[in-house]
Design brief:
By secondary structure, this protein is of the alpha+beta class. The chain has eight helices and three strands, in the order βββαααααααα. Strands 1-2-3 form a three-stranded antiparallel sheet. A hairpin with a 5-residue loop joins strand 1 and strand 2. The longest helix is centred in the C-terminal third of the chain and has 15 residues. The two termini are 32 Å apart. The relative contact order is 0.09.
């Protein structure tokens, strides 16, 4: 697909026993594409829309549809890109939440830590902090030290300090040693 040649009109997931996703698209003419959830083009369309759709409402709706697909690597990468680059403050929190459903790996961890350190939106930082706290890892310790002292949001500072205190002394081997 060439960038800019495809416009999104509507996207919906139909769960009436058929488990299909329907894309209403516009190129030269308007057309509808209906596909099953294992359809490669459907995943590519969803990824394209997440990354390229100018309408933030449509991007947000597309991010919300991610769970209907199995944990696909291309969609995961699109979610990470969305988390790190989307200018809309309503879309990034949803991307964090969707990424929490994927197995922790280095790319997701680094994205969450970058968000915790750099994102302007306190809601996005709080969601990332909560997810990181659920899956503690020794690489998180320096990030928590920085955030617990320097974050401008008092709640995030306090939560970071509490999590840091909790995971600095692992209980029952709770801290992961490596990432997949």
């Amino acid at each position: 697909m060439e960038m800019g040649l495809l416009g999104m009109k509507q996207i919906q997931y139909v769960q009436n026993g058929t488990n299909r996703i329907i894309f209403n698209l516009k190129a030269q003419d308007e057309f509808t594409y209906t596909a099953g959830l294992q359809d490669k083009l459907a995943k590519e369309l969803l990824t394209y829309i997440i990354l390229n759709e100018p309408n933030p409402g449509r991007r947000l709706h597309s991010v919300k549809l991610v769970p209907i697909f199995s944990q696909d690597d291309e969609i995961r990468m699109a979610l990470v890109a969305t988390l790190l680059t989307d200018g809309n403050p309503g879309i990034r929190p949803r991307a964090v939440e969707q990424l929490a459903n994927y197995p922790a790996d280095q790319m997701i961890w680094e994205a969450f830590m970058k968000v915790l350190l750099e994102d302007r939106n306190a809601v996005v930082r709080m969601i990332a902090l909560n997810i990181l706290a659920e899956r503690p890892h020794k690489r998180l310790l320096p990030v928590l030290q920085i955030v617990s002292h320097l974050n401008e949001n008092e709640f995030i500072r306090d939560e970071s300090a509490a999590i840091l205190a909790e995971i600095s002394e692992p209980i029952d081997g709770r801290i992961d040693e490596g990432l997949e």
